[in-house]
Design the sequence.
């Protein structure tokens, strides 16, 4: 039977529910939202940041679905409309008769918006990444950094590294003997306080105001690619009502140096971080000369909140350097920047080495706290075998959260 792709409308909700049940019974880990109106970034008159849901239909049955997130981006100050494809879900994951659905979903999204980005992915060899690469997309890793703060607890709970019994025993011994605490202390010594401007202050703000618009105008031409971060876009992405994010404004009298968006969560049974309390530097914007200061203040804010470890993904070398200066270590990443052919060509024209892309968790899937994935499917963890329980967090590259 011929297939077609249509927008998700209310009369298709029952078919989406049936689609999710088939996926679950077949052992797939994904599920698609069953309400056609997004809880996060719904289309609104005049808004440039919004989501749309699309369904691939065979007759009245849903065989695949995906989300398009629309957002403006700056290419050296030239503002362009871009879409990100998120949560492409295919019945082909459980039924070989629909093996081409993933290809059809990505192809349909490209027809709607050729200026396209893929985010997260979970790894270079997962199914959707293979589809994208076959269609000519370029896939680049976004570096991952972490800073452990409480050594013994970190070593006992870091499930990502406890992949064998011998390794787990060694980490437990390090935690018990005090070597873990000494190691974490040594990591802390690595952090070097940058030359901070005199009288710099950090303020927790409930939302982004006109100061963010002024900062955006200064910073946008300094990156080859950066998602628009004016006050309207930021307040749509980081809803003032969202309790999971904290907005930090770093300034000196008469000048805003930059901002950072941080997250502080107590995890529960996470496949990566067990029951650790994890802080994340999700987003930020500053002129290059102020990035180290903003990163330092964001790190100190999370330390003061008592987290066990701080993590961040950043693509721009200046932000990576700021994290290293603040005592962060580089780790394996499963968060990727995937550019469709048209976007890749435009970027190559203005940034041949792709070194001035400013991209981080703030550009990724969200909102933080939404569950789009079911227990038991751990395909995308690099170097990990599948397990029967546990879940991944959206901050680690996947469209899924665990209970927190």
Sequence:
């Amino acid at each position: 039977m011929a297939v077609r792709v249509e927008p998700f409308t209310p009369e298709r909700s029952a078919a989406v529910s049936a689609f999710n049940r088939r996926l679950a019974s077949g052992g797939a880990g994904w599920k698609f939202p069953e309400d056609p109106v997004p809880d996060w970034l719904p289309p609104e008159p005049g808004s440039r940041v919004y989501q749309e849901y699309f369904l691939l239909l065979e007759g009245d049955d849903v065989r695949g679905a995906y989300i398009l997130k629309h957002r403006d981006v700056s290419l050296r100050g030239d503002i362009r409309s871009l879409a990100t494809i998120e949560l492409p879900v295919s019945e082909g994951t459980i039924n070989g008769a629909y093996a081409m659905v993933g290809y059809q979903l990505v192809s349909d999204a490209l027809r709607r918006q050729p200026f396209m980005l893929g985010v997260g992915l979970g790894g270079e060899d997962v199914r959707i990444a293979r589809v994208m690469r076959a269609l000519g997309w370029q896939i680049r890793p976004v570096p991952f950094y972490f800073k452990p703060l409480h050594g013994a607890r970190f070593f006992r709970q870091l499930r990502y590294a406890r992949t064998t019994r011998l390794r787990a025993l060694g980490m437990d011994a390090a935690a018990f003997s005090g070597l873990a605490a000494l190691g974490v202390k040594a990591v802390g010594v690595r952090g070097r306080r940058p030359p901070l401007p005199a009288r710099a202050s950090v303020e927790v703000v409930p939302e982004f105001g006109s100061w963010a618009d002024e900062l955006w105008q200064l910073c946008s031409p300094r990156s080859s690619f950066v998602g628009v971060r004016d006050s309207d876009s930021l307040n749509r992405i980081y809803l003032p009502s969202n309790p999971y994010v904290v907005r930090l404004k770093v300034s000196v009298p008469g000048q805003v140096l930059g901002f950072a968006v941080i997250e502080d969560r107590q995890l529960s049974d996470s496949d990566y971080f067990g029951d650790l309390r994890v802080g994340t530097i999700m987003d930020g914007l500053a002129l290059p000369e102020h990035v180290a200061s903003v990163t330092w203040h964001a790190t100190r804010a999370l330390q003061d909140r008592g987290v066990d470890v701080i993590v961040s993904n950043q693509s721009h070398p200046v932000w990576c350097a700021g994290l290293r200066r603040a005592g962060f270590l580089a780790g394996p990443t499963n968060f990727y920047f995937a550019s469709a052919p048209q976007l890749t060509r435009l970027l190559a024209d203005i940034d041949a080495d792709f070194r001035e892309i400013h991209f981080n968790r703030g550009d990724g899937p969200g909102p933080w706290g939404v569950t789009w994935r079911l227990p038991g499917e751990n395909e995308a963890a690099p170097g990990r075998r599948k397990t029967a329980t546990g879940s991944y967090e959206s901050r680690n590259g996947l469209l899924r959260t665990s209970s927190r």
